[in-house]
Structures are given as structure tokens and as C-alpha cells.
């Protein structure tokens, strides 16, 4: 056995922690960036925002605190005529929502009586997904209706139903609901749980310093908890509504004037961030070495974040500017999408492909319509003329036209031949791939549909 020792040299690119964080900021959509900056602001005294984030978060917590009353607490505030109805069973929830809950259970795992018991409890949910009834009262009410459920049976069924989605369903108070959601996120912070259980009212009133003293925690930590609470849903039923409308918020807004593009990052709603001069001055004057070091580290972090935001903005504008010029005809509605790979754009701008990929990830551009920036890239497809290339989007458009105009149903092979006649050389398998992406059935299925509709 021979052993040899030798030296070799190789070149490797390693990224520092700051470079990695900068790339993460670049990859953020505007909404993700807002969440990131809000959390940083609450934890870093060196960051200053033109928007009062604490008041906004307190308003969010105040809106969810409205639900933090027990069933009986509600009725204690009502007049006697309402109090008399405290044993009434709420109106049944929407059937679709009831089925959504029941579908999460395996009926074969339960007896007919247990299943009927759970259906009975689901019918007792209030409009927000809370269980506000007393089990003893429900047991009595079930006897009147002939079901005769014991309190112990109802308790067993309730414990099972509390494990269902959405997290927090069947909670009997807001604090129970919020803690259930945190546990679902695998957050196991007893101090945060204690804050929710015992200090939510003080938190709503903005008494952060009072809570800080009681829990012996820095105010910065209380602000961080405040942010975590503001992300939770106080009304579980809202999480399960199928008809919820999601709106796309464009990351970049583009206008055109005198044949010149005007590109702006759609981030004005976040507010502007800057360095906090008050704490910078405090850092310069303090004689406490530990406090000075703390402020110094926070200042470096704040400067890094602000620089990364400006770099993100410059990179996005640079990339979008290139795309607007390159795909001008397509964006104006007068032409097809030109073939363009991310590698081509990276080479043209002198940046890495990974930078381009992160910059366009999940971001939307608004011009005449709102589109995903990534959709402006398209892999080239060879044509008969070697000097010409067309985008896969243009091929799909031509393929769609051929199928729309067909009198006799055309096979994928025939479609490939017709595309070749128009200068587009692709295989039958490529035709099948593009046809599937367009959501168009194959020739056999199209022939059947034609027969049925004739």
C-alpha cells in the first residue's frame, strides 16, 4: 500500500453571514420585507420608523381582545331579558364548515352515540368558532331533546374536537384560542403563554412598561411578543372560510411617459426606516461598557439592514429595467414573449444567476396588468432557421391557435408537423407537454367531446 502526500490549490467562494442575510432580504417580497422590518424594529432601538409600529400592533391586539371574555362575562353586561337566554343553544353553523370539521375525523373510530355527541357540540359553536356553552347546561338541554348526553360524554367529545383544524377551534376563551395557535406553530414559550393568559388587557392598553416590570423582562422582549400575538387569528372560523379573497399586492409599479419607463418599488405603505439619533447619542455619552457594546452591535445591525434594503431596491430596478426594454413589445400587447433565460440577463448585467433568481422570486410587476416577474422569462425553442429562436410561450400560443382552428381533431404528431411547416421544430413529445400545460386534452378526448356536443 502506497501513501502519498501532495498539495493542491482550489478556488472557492464562501459567503459571510451578512452576505447571506443580504440575499435573504433580496428574496423577500414587499409583504415579507414588511414583516421582517417590523420585527427588527421592535427588537432594535437603533431603528426608527416613520410609522408608529407599536400603535399599529396595539390596535391589532385591541381588535382581537374584544373576544377575550367568557360566555358568562358577556351576559353579565346584558340586560335581564338577554340574561334569560343564557341556556339557549346558538344557531347551527354553516353546513359546509360542519362538514369540514367532520371530514377530519374517522367515523369508524367512534360509536354512533359518540359521533352524534360531536355533531351536537359542533352545532353549538358560535359564529367565530368558539365554544361558549356550559357542558352541564348542554347536558340538560340534550335531555329535553331526547338525546340524554352526560356531561362526561360531552367533555370527552369536546377534548377530541379541540384537536381539529383550524387551530383554536372550540376554544372557550381568546387566550385559549391564541395559545392553541402558538402550540400549533410549535412555539413553547411559557412566558408568552403567561402574558396572553394574565396580561392581555394591559397589553391592549399599551402598558408595556408595567408588563415588563411584572414579568421582569426588557420592553424589547414584550414588543417582540406583541408582534407574535398580532399575527394570530382571534376568530378560527375565518381561517376556514372557502370564499376568502386574496389580493395580489404588486412589488413593483411601472408607468410610461414619453417612451420612458418609470419604475418604483411599491413600499411606501411600509413607512421609512432610518437610524435613531436619540439612541446613537446615548451610546456616545454612556460610560457603561456593556451598554455601549449593546448599542454598538444594534447600530451595526441597523446599518446593515438599511444598506441591504437600498441594495435590494437598486438590484430590482436594474433587473426590471432590462426586462421592460427586452420584452417591450409583449408588455405593450403588440408581440409575443421573446425567449430569455435568467443566465442571459445575469450576463448582461454582470451579476450572478442566483441573484437574479432571488430577486424575481414571488414578486409581481404592475404595468397594464399585474404579472409575475418570473413569467417574463421563457426558455428558447429552436426554429427551422438556425439564427431564429422563439420562446416556449410563443410556441404554446401557436399550438393553441392550431387546436382552436382544427376542423378534424389533430394528433400530437400532426400538430408537430404543422408547427414545423410554420418554422417551429419540436418533437411530438414536446407538443404533448405544451398541450398538457395549456390544459388541453389529447386527441382521443377531444374527439369524444366533439362527438358528444355534435
From TrEMBL:
The keyword Transcription applies. Coiled coil: none annotated. Gene3D superfamilies: Homeodomain-like (1.10.10.60), RNA polymerase sigma-54 factor, core-binding domain (1.10.10.1330). Residues 340-364 form the HTH cro/C1-type domain. One of its GO terms (molecular function) is sigma factor activity. Belongs to the sigma-54 factor family. GO terms for biological process: DNA-templated transcription initiation. InterPro entries: Cro/C1-type_HTH, RNA_pol_sigma_54, RNA_pol_sigma_54_core-bd, RNA_pol_sigma_54_DNA-bd, RpoN_core-bd_sf. The keyword Methyltransferase does not apply. One of its GO terms (cellular component) is DNA-directed RNA polymerase complex. This is HTH cro/C1-type domain-containing protein. Signal peptide: none annotated. Keywords: DNA-binding, DNA-directed RNA polymerase, Nucleotidyltransferase, Sigma factor, Transcription, Transcription regulation, Transferase. It comes from Blautia hydrogenotrophica (strain DSM 10507 / JCM 14656 / S5a33) (Ruminococcus hydrogenotrophicus).
